[in-house]
Design a protein that fits this description.
Length: 331
């Protein structure tokens, strides 16, 4: 009789309202739970992807910049080949005169900025070998170095290539000359002089300055304190070239000095120095470390995603089973 009375209850009857509100209410709560679950899934994915991107950025930035710098060297070779030989000869003669007249003062650590860029001497120096933005190019086959050389050793210069140390001889050779070239090691976005540690005595260093090709054979390698510049002076009757970079890698407490003495080139070597080289990106040990970290992070991320997805699926199935189960009050 009670069931019959509820079925025919008046619209204002509270019991009728209660019965009407009972049946359709359950499914409405599923949507917020699903949205919250998706949110919990996406947050760690985004975080891990950002971490992987941070790991991979130095690798791809370095490989890209390596190619760009080698293209700058190639562009220099192309540009000087297009300059009239008379102009090149005049430029080289002026550089030779500069070296002969150079009163070499105290050579300082090139990474200590103790030169006033607006000084009269420095501004005069910038006018030599200024046919292009690049003053020379240096190649060290043993270290996979093929880089443009710029005037000076200020930070902006060393970020884009090798710097010629103001106060040392211009990189055109000559008796009693000593040219000093500086490059970074350990930059996060370029290889530069990272591989100079591979150079051994007897290896060759090549320069191309205004189409003058020069070859130096390494005869001295040493690691010194930054203040130790005893070997950077000119030696009477010798034509020397020294490459300087920081060492050890990532610490930079000392300086690696690689010095070579000029020797004659044969015709094949001279042509090779003046020709362009196919740009190639370098691989360094730290790149493999970062790539390994990125791969491991990706594996862990996918594993976590699969585990979380399985847990969510199981939770949803448990909810559905609970909804399908008969309720005691309805039996």
């Amino acid at each position: 009789m009670a069931l019959f009375q509820r079925k025919h209850a008046e619209p204002g009857d509270a019991s009728a309202v209660a019965v009407a509100d009972n049946s359709p209410a359950a499914p409405a709560e599923a949507t917020p739970d699903k949205g919250a679950s998706n949110f919990r899934l996406y947050i760690p994915i985004v975080g891990v992807l950002l971490g992987i991107a941070l790991l991979l950025y130095p690798v791809f930035a370095t490989r890209h910049n390596d190619v760009v710098q080698q293209q700058q060297s190639n562009n220099y070779s192309i540009e000087v080949n297009g300059i009239p030989s008379e102009t090149l000869a005049e430029e080289l003669a002026a550089a030779d005169t500069y070296n002969e007249d150079l009163r070499q003062g105290v050579i300082l650590d090139p990474f200590i900025k103790d030169v006033a860029p607006d000084s009269e001497q420095y501004q005069a120096y910038l006018k030599y070998l200024d046919l292009t933005d690049v003053m020379s190019l240096v190649r060290v086959p043993a270290a996979d170095v093929n880089l443009p050389v710029y005037h000076g050793t200020f930070d902006d210069t060393l970020q884009k290539g090798v710097g010629h140390l103001f106060g040392s001889s211009l990189p055109v050779g000559g008796d009693s000359s000593h040219s000093i070239l500086t490059g970074h090691t350990g930059l996060p976005n370029a290889t530069m002089f990272d591989n100079l540690t591979k150079v051994k005595e007897g290896d060759a260093i090549y320069l191309n300055t205004a189409n003058r090709a020069l070859k130096y054979v390494v005869n001295d390698i040493r690691v010194v304190e930054p203040s130790n510049v005893d070997t950077l002076g000119r030696v009477e009757g010798k034509d020397l070239l020294t490459l300087i970079t920081c060492t050890p890698y990532g610490v930079n407490s000392h300086r690696l000095l690689i010095t070579g003495e000029r020797v004659p080139l044969d015709d094949i070597e001279e042509q090779a120095v003046k020709q362009i080289e196919e740009p190639k990106a370098h691989w360094s040990w730290w790149m493999f470390v970062l790539l390994g970290g990125a791969i491991l992070s990706a594996i862990l991320m996918f594993g976590a995603i699969i585990r979380l997805w399985l847990l969510m699926r199981r939770s949803n199935e448990d909810k559905k089973d609970a909804e399908r189960a008969p309720h005691p009050e309805n039996s």
